Amino acid sequence: MSESLDPVIHAAARLRITAKLATLDADEQIAFPRLQQLLEMTAGNLSTHLQRLEEAEYVTIEKTHQGRTPVTYLALTPRGRRAFEDYTATLRGLIAGAS
């Protein structure tokens, strides 16, 4: 386990996004507007942080249509799920070491 926290996840907004996506089953996705609502973030702010997570290959962003309506679905990748697990393990270790 590394002693440093993953800087991609460590930003507060990206930590919130990753934590929320980690609550989904590995084969589940969530629609962008639902995630935006749950996190109470603006669309622009959420999009910016999702782009960074996508660049790190921590999330997948699937753009599709339901009828004529565009829909964006989000999910953690296996790499993203592992990064979140490593992050939380490192954080627990740092907290335990501070006790």
From TrEMBL:
It comes from the Bacteria. Residues 21-94 form the Winged helix DNA-binding domain. InterPro entries: WH-like_DNA-bd_sf, WH_DNA-bd_dom, WH_DNA-bd_sf. It holds the Pfam family HTH_34. This is Helix-turn-helix domain-containing protein. It comes from Protaetiibacter larvae.
